[in-house]
């Protein structure tokens, strides 16, 4: 269902943006990470990844830097903002990424609630979660 939500051809783009949101990477590193995420079932070819990176560069979402003979790709501020929206695509590794994923889900719920009414049960769960997060944010102050 996720690929349908993201639209045709958008899943790979979204995954690459999310990965670059975690750290700058070369095209080869991106291919290896995608292979790892698919548990070895799929490794995109250079003919898939490099045209995508060029397109992201043209869109102003990615910049390419030469570092020691390697072409390293990193997100622009616009790319970083977009990557936060897709943070849920890759399991979080660490507290910072969990917070980014929560933020992405909150943005999604907010946008969703503008188009569809949330049920009473969902609103109650959101209030409970918000209360827990508020308490968590205040505990170590």
Q: Can you walk me through this structure?
A:
It is built from 7 helices and 3 strands. It is mostly helical. Strand 2 (62-67) and strand 3 (70-75) form a beta hairpin. Residues 1-8 have low confidence and may be disordered.
- Number of E strands: 3
User: Biggest sheet, in brief?
Assistant: 3 strands, antiparallel
Secondary-structure-derived class = mainly alpha
CATH superfamily annotation of the largest domain: Winged helix-like DNA-binding domain superfamily/Winged helix DNA-binding domain
**Helices and strands, in N-to-C order?**
HHEHHEEHHH
Strand content: 5-15%
If strands are numbered along the chain, what order do they take across the biggest sheet? 1-3-2
What name is given to the CATH topology of the largest domain? Answer: Arc Repressor Mutant, subunit A
What's the mean pLDDT score?
84
Please work out how many helical segments DSSP would assign: 7
Q: Tell me the quaternary state.
A: single chain
CATH class of the largest domain: Mainly Alpha
* Contiguous uncertain segments of 5+ residues: 1-8
Helix content: 55-70%
Global Rg? 18 Å
The total number of structural domains is 2
Instruction: Determine the N-to-C terminus distance.
Output: 41 Å
CATH architecture identity of the largest domain: Orthogonal Bundle
Shape: elongated
């Amino acid at each position: 269902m996720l690929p349908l939500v993201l639209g045709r051809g958008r899943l790979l783009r979204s995954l690459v943006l999310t990965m670059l949101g975690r750290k700058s990477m070369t095209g080869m590193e991106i291919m290896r990470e995608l292979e790892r995420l698919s548990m070895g079932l799929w490794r995109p070819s250079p003919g898939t990844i490099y045209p995508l990176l060029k397109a992201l560069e043209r869109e102003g979402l990615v910049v390419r830097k030469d570092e020691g003979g390697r072409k390293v790709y990193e997100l622009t501020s616009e790319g970083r903002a977009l990557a936060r929206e897709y943070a849920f695509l890759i399991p979080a590794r660490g507290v910072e990424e969990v917070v980014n994923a929560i933020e992405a889900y909150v943005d999604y719920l907010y946008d969703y609630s503008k188009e569809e009414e949330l049920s009473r049960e969902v609103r109650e769960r959101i209030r409970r979660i918000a209360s827990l997060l508020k308490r968590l944010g205040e505990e170590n102050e």
